[in-house]
From TrEMBL:
Name of the featured protein: PAP2 superfamily protein
Keywords carried by this UniProt record: Membrane, Transmembrane, Transmembrane helix
Transmembrane segments: 46-73, 170-190
Pfam families xref list: PAP2
Organism annotation: Selenomonas ruminantium
The Phosphatidic acid phosphatase type 2/haloperoxidase domain, residue ranges: 89-208
Amino acid sequence: MLNLLGMGLFFSWSVCRYGGDMQGFWPVIDQNVFFFFNGWLGENLAFRYVVAFTNLRVFDTISFLSMLAIFGWHYRKMDKAGRRWMLCMGVVILLTAVIGKQFDLAWNVERPSPTMFFTDLGTPVLRVSELTGWPAKDWSSSSFPGDHGMCLLIFCFYMLRYFGWRTFMAGLMVVVLFSLPRVMSGAHWFTDIAVGAASVNLIVLSWMLLTPASDKIIAWLMKKMHWQMLS
């Protein structure tokens, strides 16, 4: 069912028309979200510098460390066998991200970020890197799907599957905190995450987490390393 939902979500976006005359449900949302935040960049100095800071490359490191902190919080509470199990789970999370990336490559969707898209149309837009002089990410020749958001969502739902709702909510905060800045700067469209990352994850995670697949791969890794499985 979730596979069909993911494919339907992607199809609903793929039939929309992007151009000088934005037509369809998703293009209108994308345009409105972009110009809402782009207008704020010119009106609010504090917002401008917050967006600039959260789109620096170093902020990507902070997002990784945030995920590592959530993972590590559970890791330190485990015994030796539990820690080995978590290491194998970490490998499976990475494997899931690689599988998700293959969908990106198979779909072969190339579209520029909204800043580049509207600039090419001759529409004046603000770029936070130019407004602040900081090397913030606000431009991309290919922004779909949102790889950053896709990987964060994968981590988030693995936390839900194995550690419950409280850890999921912590992971969800990381998703919002580290995905939204890309949308606010114009480096990504809203649908890069809401459609691109979401549709990939609906397909991939339904197979990995709603079937015994992830458990079996973890067990296989534990067996290969001659580690004892958790009872």
